[in-house]
């Protein structure tokens, strides 16, 4: 049994502009101790997915259908009381912007301790002790005196560390990290990511890492789900996604990973923007931006299939993608090629311009291969 | 800066403020036509010109405005607020004897305002745009719009004349007497209503704003019960803007009590002030005004301290 299993989740927001299809029929699962990445541009439905898992969708949003099984129990059917005993305790969340996620008028220590007191029933002193220990674990120097500091007395990186300490305070089974490093600068980003990774191993916690940055995913995750306009478009183990991306959107995302020290034109983003979720394009939602779109893409909506066989995806399929190419409905095929190059000590993937479009792309695949999976 | 230095600095700042207040009030009082001596003379036609001049000199009312002011401020600085004309009472005596009544009224008004406004504001923010919120907004709007003298008269009409629960005017007993405290309810509500209404609205707005902040989602994600999130996390943040408003409202409560004390015949400083103005009791007017000014400055200082206690990001400087 998976730790978390999301089945056919659909979430809508009833706004004045119309009904926003934030998440549409989404399924995925995360195993105990696994590091699972959710990737996509903003508006893809990543954060809504995360909040739905914790049942934190607020009006005007509404979870329309689906189930969220955590250890086999459907969180969506639990009483408020029951779900609260899971939040912060068995499933915890690390927010994007630590500065806004911390309450400015209470000390950092108090905000960590209150969770511990609430879930674990510790008294004031025990909770304080554990909080100080946690602050120390996440790498905050002089944790004992920092305990009584207010959030504004912490630097951005330290605030994020404190948020991580808070999330880990009750030894969760699942840690949902929503863009945990977007608000930080690059040097701190790497450190925090490493920290999350080590701590997850140490605490034996599964991670759902939400990010718009495929590079971050490569560093941390085992498996990846790429989302576009509320739907999953590709799911794969991380190295397969890098060496053998199957969906044009994934390829597009790879071309937009910035890389330091590369002279060639790199920061090429996917042309166009995320479609209006109130009024999704017909057929494949990606077709207005897809360089390989054909007439059929505007008519039929591609299902998630096994790219090798074209058969509808099952739970056993490791690598699935939602593009008409794999059900044989495209006449010209996808025009990118993936070449693996070796330069310096990095393995690189180059997607070369194909027949119809030019997307000269190469991608950093840090140590996604061998050494991390031992 | 330490809290002590902050308080000290602010207290020193009251000196120029009170000086300004005294100059302006002094000028205004003297620029209004008529003075206490002409009033005495008008009441008693037998007073001769020489006697009138002598009276003026006795009360320090001869000489130019500046000379008069200098005499007055000199006396005040040595602790002498002067006498009430045509009676043996000293101004300081009147002030001290009337102060408890006014403080009781102001405090009651304040407590009433806060007790009504904060829970209602919280309730309205949580149930934003629902029936309860709309209803409380309409009531608040009426509370702000109704003039307090009219509200006072209505309360007398209903409470005293129809229900017969209260007397029409304040009983003539000491302020801590149960009868007096019971009567306090009417002017207290009257003086507190407008403040309650504005505080409620600010409470609602700032609470609704705070409820949208991410730390609330984060607190929910920690599994804290909603009641705790509201009462511990959100309330304290929302109170920050309420405190600022509350300090500003002190002035309006003070101003309101002048009218309300007159309507209810409440024996406080406000009613005394109205009588002093009628009787051209310059010394009394000056003393009450100065005292009120000092009190408002003090209330603001208190608000600033409270503000910094509520919000650790505020530094005293
Ligand atoms: S189905 Fe068509 S539009 Fe959609 S990704 Fe595939 S080629 Fe592009």
UniProtKB/TrEMBL annotation, chain A:
Q: Which residues form the ABC transporter domain?
A: 4-254
Give the InterPro entries listed for this entry. AAA+_ATPase, ABC_Ni/Peptide_Import, ABC_transporter-like_ATP-bd, ABC_transporter-like_CS, Oligopep_ABC_C, P-loop_NTPase
For this protein, the record's SMART domains field holds: AAA
Read off the SUPFAM superfamilies from this record.
Answer: P-loop containing nucleoside triphosphate hydrolases
Which molecular function term from Gene Ontology is one that the record holds?
A: ATP binding
Assign the protein's first listed, main location to one coarse class: membrane
Q: Where is this region: Disordered?
A: 342-374
UniProt-recorded name of the protein: Oligopeptide/dipeptide ABC transporter ATPase
> What top-level branch of life does the organism fall under?
Archaea
Q: From its record, what is one biological process in GO terms?
A: peptide transport
Mode of membrane association: Peripheral membrane protein
tRNA-binding is among the record's keywords: no
| Gene Ontology CC annotations of this record | plasma membrane
> Where in or outside the cell is it found?
Cell membrane
- Tell me the Gene3D superfamilies matching this sequence: P-loop containing nucleotide triphosphate hydrolases
From TrEMBL, chain B:
Compartments it resides in: Cell membrane
Q: How does it sit in the membrane?
A: Multi-pass membrane protein
Top-rank taxon of the source lineage equals Archaea
- InterPro entries in the cross-refs: BPD_transp_1_N (IPR045621), MetI-like (IPR000515), MetI-like_sf (IPR035906)
As given in the record, the signal peptide range reads: none
| Domain ABC transmembrane type-1 stretches | 99-307
Q: Does the keyword Metal-binding apply?
A: no
Does Lipid biosynthesis count among this protein's keywords?
A: no
Q: Which UniProt keywords are listed?
A: Cell membrane, Membrane, Transmembrane, Transmembrane helix, Transport
Query: One GO CC term of this entry?
Result: plasma membrane
The transmembrane residues are 12-31, 103-126, 138-165, 180-203, 242-264, 284-310
Q: Which GO terms describe its biological process?
A: transmembrane transport
User: What PANTHER family does the record tag this protein with?
Assistant: DIPEPTIDE TRANSPORT SYSTEM PERMEASE PROTEIN DPPB-RELATED
Q: Which family does it belong to?
A: Belongs to the binding-protein-dependent transport system permease family.
- The name under which this protein is listed is Oligopeptide ABC transporter permease
Q: What organism does the UniProt record list as the source? A: Natronolimnohabitans innermongolicus JCM 12255
């Amino acid at each position: 049994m998976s730790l978390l299993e999301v089945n056919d989740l659909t979430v809508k927001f009833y706004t004045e502009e119309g009904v926003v299809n934030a998440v549409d029929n989404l399924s995925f699962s995360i195993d105990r101790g696994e590091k699972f990445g959710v990737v996509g541009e903003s508006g893809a439905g990543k954060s809504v997915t995360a909040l739905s898992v914790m049942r934190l969708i607020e009006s005007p949003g509404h979870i329309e259908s689906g189930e969220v099984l955590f250890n086999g129990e459907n969180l969506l059917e639990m009483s408020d009381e029951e779900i609260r005993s899971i939040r912060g305790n068995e499933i915890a969340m690390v927010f994007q912007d630590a500065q806004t996620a911390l309450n400015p008028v209470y000390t950092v220590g108090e905000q960590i301790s209150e969770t511990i007191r609430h879930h674990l029933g510790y008294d004031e002193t025990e909770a304080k002790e554990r909080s100080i220990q946690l602050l120390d674990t996440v790498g905050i120097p002089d944790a004992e005196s920092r305990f009584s500091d207010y959030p504004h007395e912490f630097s951005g990186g330290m605030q994020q560390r404190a948020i991580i300490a808070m999330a880990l305070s009750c030894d969760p089974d699942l840690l949902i990290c929503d863009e945990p490093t977007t608000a930080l600068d690059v040097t701190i980003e790497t450190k925090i990511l490493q920290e999350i990774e080590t701590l997850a191993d140490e605490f034996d916690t599964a991670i759902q890492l939400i990010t718009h940055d495929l590079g971050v995913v490569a560093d941390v995750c085992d498996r990846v789900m790429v989302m576009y306009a509320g739907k999953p478009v590709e799911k794969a183990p991380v190295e397969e996604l890098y060496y053998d991306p199957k969906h044009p959107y994934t390829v597009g995302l790879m071309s937009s990973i910035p890389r330091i020290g590369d002279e060639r034109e790199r920061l090429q983003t996917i042309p166009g923007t995320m479609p209006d979720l109130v009024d999704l394009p017909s057929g494949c939602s990606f077709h207005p931006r897809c360089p390989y779109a054909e007439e059929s893409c505007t008519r039929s909506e591609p299902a998630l299939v096994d790219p090798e066989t074209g058969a509808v995806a099952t739970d056993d399929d490791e690598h699935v993608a939602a593009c008409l190419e794999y059900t044989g409905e495209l006449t010209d095929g996808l025009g990118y090629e993936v070449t693996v190059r070796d330069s310096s000590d990095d393995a690189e993937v180059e997607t070369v311009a194909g027949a119809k479009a030019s997307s000269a792309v190469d991608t950093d695949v840090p140590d996604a291969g061998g050494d991390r999976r031992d | 800066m330490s809290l002590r230095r902050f308080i000290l600095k602010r207290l020193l700042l009251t000196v120029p403020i009170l000086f300004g207040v005294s100059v302006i009030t002094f000028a205004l009082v003297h620029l209004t036509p008529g003075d206490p001596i002409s009033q005495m003379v008008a009441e008693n036609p037998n007073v001769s010109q020489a006697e009138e001049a002598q009276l003026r000199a006795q009360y320090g009312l001869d000489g130019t405005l500046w000379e008069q002011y200098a005499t007055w401020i000199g006396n005040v600085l040595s602790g002498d607020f002067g006498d009430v004309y045509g009676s043996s009472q000293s101004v300081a005596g009147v002030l001290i004897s009337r102060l408890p009544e006014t403080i009781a009224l102001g405090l009651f008004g304040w407590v009433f305002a806060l007790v009504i406004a904060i829970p209602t504001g919280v309730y309205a923010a949580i149930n934003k745009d629902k029936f309860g919120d709309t209803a409380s907004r309409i009531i608040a709007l009426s509370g702000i719009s109704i003039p307090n003298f009219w509200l006072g008269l209505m309360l007398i009409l209903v409470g005293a004349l129809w229900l017969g629960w209260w007397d029409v005017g304040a009983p003539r007993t000491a302020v801590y007497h149960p009868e007096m405290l019971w009567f306090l309810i009417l002017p207290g509500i009257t003086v507190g209503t407008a403040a309650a209404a504005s505080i409620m609205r600010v409470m609602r707005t700032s609470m609704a704003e705070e409820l949208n902040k991410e730390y609330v989602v984060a607190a929910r994600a920690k599994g804290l019960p909603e009641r705790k999130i509201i009462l511990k996390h959100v309330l304290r943040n929302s109170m920050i803007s309420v405190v600022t408003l509350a300090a500003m409202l002190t002035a309006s409560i003070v101003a309101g009590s002048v009218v309300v004390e007159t309507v209810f015949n409440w024996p406080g400083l406000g009613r005394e002030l109205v009588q002093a103005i009628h009787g051209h009791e310059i010394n009394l007017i000056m003393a009450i005004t100065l005292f009120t000014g000092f009190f408002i400055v003090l209330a603001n200082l208190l608000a600033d301290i409270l503000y910094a206690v509520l919000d650790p990001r505020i530094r005293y400087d």
